[in-house]
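Sequence design from tokenized structure. All designs in this work follow the same two-part layout: the structure record, then the generated sequence. An example of the structure record is given first.
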């Protein structure tokens, strides 16, 4: 008879278990909803696929560049900021390896964006501030808005969020955001900070490609495409926000139960199968963003992947350790401001950066 594997002691786990739920953010909760098993690997055991490092750094550099554009209204300053952030990690010699996600293509795409949309007339209130979103059940959900601004012409508050996707001009890609947890979280917390004020969320989306090849007559080849840029505005009705709150609190209850079983060691059934943080059998999470999950082999072949990892002594060869703390940076108060008929004013810690 096959011996039943004993419960495993997880050492080390990342973060303080007493604050796991208190420090959960929107992106991590979305990951748990998509695949609890991958959430276990990444958010509780801290495993990370370093092959994503370039995309993260390029995205961070693009964020910095676009934020500089909205603050200074100077495209050259924006491109200089983006390149400064990017070059601190990747020298020019690496550009052939990472094109089209390189500074020169960002320069080209940003100028195309300005030709298409122009510079928005806004007053910047806050940039990249973590905020704790209060939920009706007493929990908090962390989020980080790329940029919060006011439109002087209408006194409307707008939240900017930056995305990169090759499908940004497709209808299905644009429609998915109507039920996005991120859109609802941004709108909800911003509405709490600025009550009785119209709030909307603007997605600024880019798709970066190499410049198209040109024929002798100056026209591009049929299969070659240029960079794409989209600016999309979303505003969710109150009933949708309340439905999202119910969904969020239900997920947190499930996650709290899985965390309790992880910490107690009561994770295995009578045949040694890991029962907490269940796998996603729809298959969608196994190839998100058009790339396989880095834990797919372990997850598909092992009834108890924690025993296979022999965690605490062995980290998979293709993985590194990483812990994301959503609370880092200046804290934004999420408590509602007193209602007033006067135009809302930015909070003291939300002054425009210079």
């Amino acid at each position: 008879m096959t011996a039943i594997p004993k419960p495993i002691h997880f050492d080390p786990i990342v973060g303080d278990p007493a604050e796991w739920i208190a420090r959960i953010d929107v992106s991590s909760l979305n990951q748990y909803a998509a695949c609890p098993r991958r959430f276990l690997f990444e958010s509780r055991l801290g495993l990370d696929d370093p092959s994503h490092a370039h995309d993260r750094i390029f995205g961070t550099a693009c964020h910095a560049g676009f934020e500089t554009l909205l603050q200074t209204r100077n495209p050259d300053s924006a491109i200089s900021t983006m390149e400064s952030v990017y070059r601190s990690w990747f020298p020019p010699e690496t550009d052939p390896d990472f094109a089209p996600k390189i500074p020169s293509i960002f320069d080209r795409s940003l100028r195309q964006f300005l030709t298409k949309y122009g510079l928005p007339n806004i007053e910047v209130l806050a940039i990249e501030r973590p905020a704790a979103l209060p939920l009706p059940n007493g929990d908090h959900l962390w989020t980080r808005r790329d940029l919060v601004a006011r439109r002087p012409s209408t006194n409307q508050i707008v939240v900017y969020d930056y995305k990169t996707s090759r499908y940004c001009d497709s209808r299905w890609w644009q429609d998915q955001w109507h039920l996005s947890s991120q859109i609802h979280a941004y709108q909800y917390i911003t509405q709490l900070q600025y009550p009785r004020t119209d709030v909307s969320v603007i997605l600024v989306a880019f798709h970066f490609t190499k410049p198209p090849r040109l024929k002798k007559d100056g026209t591009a080849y049929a299969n070659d495409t240029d960079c794409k840029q989209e600016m999309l505005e979303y505003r969710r009705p109150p009933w949708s926000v309340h439905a999202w709150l119910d969904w969020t609190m239900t997920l947190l209850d499930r996650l709290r139960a899985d965390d309790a079983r992880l910490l107690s060691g009561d994770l295995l059934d009578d045949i040694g199968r890991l029962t907490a943080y269940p796998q996603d059998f729809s298959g969608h999470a196994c190839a998100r963003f058009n790339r396989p999950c880095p834990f797919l082999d372990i997850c598909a072949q092992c009834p108890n992947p924690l025993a296979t990892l022999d965690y605490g002594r062995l980290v998979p060869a293709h993985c590194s350790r990483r812990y994301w703390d959503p609370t880092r940076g200046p804290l934004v108060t999420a408590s509602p401001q007193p209602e007033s008929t006067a135009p809302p004013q930015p909070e003291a810690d939300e002054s425009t950066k210079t």
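DSSP finds eleven helices and seven strands in the chain. We note this feature because it recurs in several other targets discussed in the main text.
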